[in-house]
């Protein structure tokens, strides 16, 4: 990518514009957007103006929102009009959602009144709903069309559609009746009608459905396109697989950030200010630091135990680390299962039994290894070795069960299961493992 950028910049500097334009036309719009982002202001504007208009629209749609805003302030009114006119509605809505209000008003003033009404309607949908990511640029069919008529209609009206893979069949009042694929139409006999070929059982979503539910449907059925209907089952838009891939990436990123104990951010790491990064992390760090008071209180309450037998303190880090790691393993798997829909609330008993069995196996192996190692290191302290080994076993069982059940609890109270990941689990398990350890020490060692 660096070599390609340097080559393009060399062509610009030497004013070899015809050769540059030819090479630009051979590039993928996604790659071009990334290359242009790394250029200087003057290089960026000149490169965009050298692109064929249709390619310029595709490249602009693939750019980062911040760069889009910058470009809109640098190019002419005529260039803005062309970009706005040729962009797909869903891409234009995404752009408007990121722009300042003054610039949004300026762009809306330039679009056709009918398009403006569509954009305003789309902008009213709540963020993270099916309506907010759908596009109205699709081609629908009537059920009474014969195969040649349907194909001819698609040829005449499909050029502005985002996809023609699935054609949705609607009534005169736009009620969704069925779906027929373009492949089916092309291979069908001419005397058949769309109604003869369409599949009436259509899986779709409503405008207010959450995007996570939409993503689950795409994943379950391997769809390329999904219809979006209103409460009266009238077709109002479609969602394509490329749009939902962006949603899945955003949702996964958000879950990872929550699991790491930080507030999710809409901006890439390198474009987020130091202050915002610190602010996003400070809440969880403060909570986890204060929760450490509980661990300190437990150590204080059992101070007499490790004053009598100081060697007990030696094993605390091993115990808490093992517990935290065990809990994180279980919580990560369960959280992922809940997010993907592989695990549901009704599966809590199955999960409990499975994790209990796993914890017994892993705990027994770790306890045995601990016992063998400590018997070699402390041959004269068999009871202490027994205490530590039993504490390892009990801690692993406790940690894995907590790691498995706490995400269910989070989902039950309508919270994101991802918050029950490593930071939270580790804090809870640390305190619990110390309680187990010192109770066993008092019971077995009689202190």
Automatic annotation (TrEMBL):
* Superkingdom of origin organism: Bacteria
Question: What PROSITE patterns does this protein's entry cite?
Answer: CBS
Which Pfam families does the entry mention? CBS, MgtE, MgtE_N
Membrane topology listed for this record:
Multi-pass membrane protein
Localization, per the record, is: Cell membrane; Membrane
Which residue windows are transmembrane per the record?
282-302, 358-376, 383-406, 418-440
Q: Name one GO cellular component term.
A: plasma membrane
> Annotated Gene Ontology MF terms?
magnesium ion transmembrane transporter activity; metal ion binding
Domain CBS: start-end pairs? 198-254
Q: Does the keyword Endoplasmic reticulum apply?
A: no
Q: Which UniProt keywords apply?
A: CBS domain, Cell membrane, Magnesium, Membrane, Metal-binding, Transmembrane, Transmembrane helix, Transport
PANTHER family reported in the protein's UniProt record: MAGNESIUM TRANSPORTER MGTE
Describe its partners and assembly state: Homodimer.
Q: Which family does it belong to?
A: Belongs to the SLC41A transporter family.
What job does this protein perform?
A: Acts as a magnesium transporter.
Instruction: Write down what this protein is called.
Output: Magnesium transporter MgtE
Which organism is this entry from?
A: Proteiniclasticum ruminis
């Amino acid at each position: 990518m660096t070599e390609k950028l340097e080559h393009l910049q060399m062509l610009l500097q030497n004013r070899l514009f015809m050769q540059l334009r030819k090479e630009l036309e051979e590039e993928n719009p996604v790659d071009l957007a990334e290359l242009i982002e790394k250029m200087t202001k003057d290089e960026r504007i000149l490169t965009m103006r050298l692109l064929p208009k249709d390619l310029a629209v595709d490249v602009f749609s693939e750019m980062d929102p911040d760069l889009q805003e910058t470009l809109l302030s640098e190019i002419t009114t005529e260039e803005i009009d062309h970009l706005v006119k040729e962009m797909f509605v869903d891409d234009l809505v995404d752009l408007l959602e990121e722009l300042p209000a003054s610039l949004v008003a300026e762009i809306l003033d330039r679009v056709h009144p009918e398009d403006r009404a569509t954009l305003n309607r789309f902008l009213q949908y709540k963020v993270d709903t099916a309506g907010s990511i759908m596009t109205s640029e699709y081609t629908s069919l009537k059920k009474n069309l014969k195969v040649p008529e349907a194909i001819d209609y698609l040829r005449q009206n499909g050029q502005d559609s985002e996809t023609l893979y699935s054609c949705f069949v609607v009534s005169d009042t736009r009620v969704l009746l069925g779906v027929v694929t373009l492949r089916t139409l092309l291979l069908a006999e001419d005397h058949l009608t769309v109604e003869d070929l369409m599949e009436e059982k259509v899986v779709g979503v409503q405008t207010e459905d959450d995007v996570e539910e939409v993503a689950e449907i795409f994943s379950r059925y391997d769809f390329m396109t999904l219809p979006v209907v209103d409460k009266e089952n009238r077709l109002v838009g479609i969602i394509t697989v490329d749009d939902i891939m962006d949603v899945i990436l955003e949702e996964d990123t958000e879950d990872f950030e929550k699991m790491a104990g930080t507030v999710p951010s809409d901006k890439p790491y390198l474009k987020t200010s130091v202050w915002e990064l610190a602010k996003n992390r400070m809440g969880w760090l403060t909570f986890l630091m204060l929760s450490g008071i509980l661990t300190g209180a437990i150590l204080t309450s059992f101070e007499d135990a490790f004053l009598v037998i100081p060697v007990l303190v030696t094993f605390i880090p091993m115990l808490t680390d093992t517990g935290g790691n065990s809990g994180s393993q279980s919580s990560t798997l369960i959280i992922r299962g809940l997010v993907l829909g592989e695990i549901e609330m009704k599966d809590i008993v199955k999960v409990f039994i499975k994790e209990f069995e796993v914890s017994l196996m892993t705990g027994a192996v770790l306890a045995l290894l601990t016992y063998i190692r400590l018997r070699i290191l402390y041959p004269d302290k068999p009871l202490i070795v027994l205490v530590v080994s039993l504490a390892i076993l009990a801690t692993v069982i406790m940690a894995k069960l907590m790691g498995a059940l706490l995400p269910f609890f989070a989902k039950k109270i309508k919270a994101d299961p991802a918050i029950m990941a490593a930071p939270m689990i580790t804090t809870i398990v640390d305190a619990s493992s110390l309680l187990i350890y010192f109770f066993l020490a008092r019971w077995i060692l009689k202190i």
